[in-house]
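Posting here for the record, re: arginine.
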Amino acid sequence: MKYSVCMFAAAVAASAMFVGCFGKKDEASKNKEGVLSGAKEAVSAVADKASDAVAAAADKTAEVAEAAKDKAAEAVEAVKEGADAAAEAVAGAVAGAAAAVAPKEGTIRMITEATFPPYEFRQGKEVVGIDVEICKAIAKALGKELAIEDVEFDSVLPSLIAGKAELAAAGITVTEDRKMQVDFSVPYVRTGIVFVYAKDKPFEKGEDAKGKKVGVQNGTTSADYVREKLGQEPEMFDSPASAFAALKAGKVDVVIADIDPAKAVIKGQDGYDISDLLTVEEYAVAIKKGQPELLATVNKVINGLKDSGELDKITDDMTAKANAMAAAEEAKPAEAPKAE
Ligand code: ARG
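Prediction output follows.
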């Protein structure tokens, strides 16, 4: 993909220089007619090369190919107005082709933030979890392979909107704000957020945290809760586990996180506990707005997984997997022995 875009960009750039030369010659000779036809040829060569490169790029999607062809056609159009304008349009075509992001053919991309067991977490280098299994089922229904992109949680929806992935699944709570930006599938779980606290300093109700240092993961509904319900700024962390580490280190008084990852972080940690739910939230898969067909497929798959009992099985399996990993983590010596 990158290689073919480069080839395309190089071909277009080389031809752009050609067009640029004609532009200068135009000034010198004042033979506008001849130059314009020369420039026209140059730009249609650009268009040809562009379509050649596009055709040759086997892993490019039809969408990118179309966009590139359109840009090239625009360049041809611009020649009629002068070689300089054409050169500009060609430069635009280069920029457009470079900025275009598309999945490898036969692939659908899921964007997530993999510090959120059992929904998404790393097992070695691999990202696994309930959301991964749901997206795999969606990919299968579409006859595609699943590719996973792991980013900071507060980049998940912006990246989806920017076209860096087709599916966002990251234990994403459906909220009114987010509904204005993306389309959500049917929900696949009902859950909520809780306090994570040291047993000797329990937190039960929202008010208990007023004026206290509250650690949350960046961009989450837990952060919203602190701002909207407690009227204060939360302390931001890049994962529930790092917020919990800050609690253990005494840097925050309490943590707020979604109940399942909260249970995961306190697993095997004797001195810590979680409260009852502070909110009721539902997770769903997000897609870019305006794709009714994709949305229908996603919903069909999720409803199928729910109705068949498969989703319960996936949830049990992934919870067990996350717990086993937490147990293995705990069993590790505090410092790994150094290799001689
Ligand atoms: N459910 C919360 C939200 O949507 C937290 C999700 C965090 N997910 C993650 N993969 N880190 O804001």
